[in-house]
Specification:
Residues 345-419 form the Pyrimidine nucleoside phosphorylase C-terminal domain. 47% of the residues lie in helices and 16% in strands. By secondary structure, the chain is an alpha/beta fold. Helix 9 (177-190) packs across helix 10.
Length: 434
Amino acid sequence: MRAVDIIMNKRNGKELSREEIGFLIGGYVAGEIPDYQVSAWAMAVFFRGMTAKETAALTDLMLKSGASMDLSGISGPFVDKHSTGGVGDKTSLILAPIVAALGIKDPMMSGRALGHTGGTLDKLDAIPGYRSNLEPAEFRRILAKDGFAMTGQTKDIVPADRLLYALRDVTATVESIPLITASILSKKVAEGADALVFDVKFGSGAFMKDAADGEKLARSLVDTGTAMGKKIVALLTDMNEPLGNMMGNFLEVEESLDCLEGKGPADLMEVTLELAARMVVLGGKAKDASEGRRLCEQALAGGKPRELFLANIESQGGDVKKFLEMRGSYRSPVSAEIRAAKPGYIARIDAWKVGHAGVDLGVGRNRTEDAVSPTAGVQFHLKGGDKVAPGDLIMTVWARDKPGLAAALPQLEESVEYSGSAPAKRQLVLKEIG
C-alpha cells in the first residue's frame, strides 16, 4: 500500500477503505508519511468529500491513535459542549459551572485560537497562574471536586488530530465537513463524555458561512456521534456578529464572570442558556429544554455557578484574589476608539472582519507557535440594532503593539455596517438537530 495511491483514489472520487485510511493516518502519526502527502490527501477530501462510512472510520482511527481519559470511579453523568468556532464565543466558560451546579460533570478538553476564532485555553491562560495543561490524575481530581475541569489536548490523546488539526489550518482545508467531524468527535469521545451538545455556528464569523452548510455539519456530527454510541444534540447558531460585548482573552474571562453574576449581555446569555439547557436534558436532570433552561436560570440566581467558577480557578493554580483585582483594569496601554461615522442604526458588526482584526491586535494567531496577548481585544459599546449619531462610541480597542493597532483599525471601522432603519432582530438559535 502506498500513500500516493490513496491520495489518487480520493482525488478521483473513490471511497477509501478503513485499511487505506488507517495506513495514511497511522503512517502520519508514526512520522513515516510526510506532511506534503497528508496535505494533498486533505485537499482531495476537501473537494471530493467522504462518505458516512469513511467519516466514521476516520473518526474511530483518529480516536484510537492514542490514549483516552479514564473517568472510572467518578460519578457522572458526563456531558460536554463543543463549539465549531466563532468570535467572542466564551460560552464554555459560563455553562460549565452552571451545569456543574446542577450535578452534571463536564470533562472539557479545549483548544487554542487559530485564525480568526478564539481559543478557550488562551482565555484561561490570561488568568494569573491558571494551568490549562493538566495531567490525567489532576484532571480527574478537579473534575470530581468542582464538577468540571479545563485542559488542553496532550500529545498522548488523539495525536492524529493534534497533527492533522495544525496541518488543516495552514492548507486551507479547515472547512471540510468530514475532517471537522472526525477532529471534533475523536477528541470529545476521548475525553470521556457520555453525551455531547454541539454549537454549530454559521455566518460571516463561522467556518460555515450559511445555515445550509452549518446544518450539514451538524447532521454529520449527530449521525457520526450517535453511531459511536453517544447521545448527541446540535444547535445551529448565528455567528454573523461577535457574541457578547467583549472580544479578547482576559476581556472574555471578565465577561464570563459578569454573566455568572447576572450582568451578561442578552445575546451571549441566550446562546449559553440554550446550550446549557440541552446539556441538562442529556444529563437526565430535566425532561425537556424548557425545564433545563429554567433549572439553569435558578442555579445562576442562587450564585453557585459563580462559586464553582472561582473554585476552579483556584483548583487549576490560578490566583483568584489577583484575578478579581485585575478585573476592569488589565488592558494593553496601546488603545484607540472607533466612533460612529454616520447617523442611523448599526445594521451589524461583521464578525469575520472583527476576528481577523483580532489576529493583528494579538488576540489570535496565524500559526500554532505564535504567542497571543492576554490584554488585547475589543469592547463593543454598541452593536447591531442600536441607534447611533455621528461620534457615538462603538468600540474601544486594545492592541499588543502600535503596528498591530494600525493594521486592525481599518478592518474594525469597515466591520460596522449602517442602516437608515432599524434592522430585523437576529434569530440566534436557528434550529435543534438531534
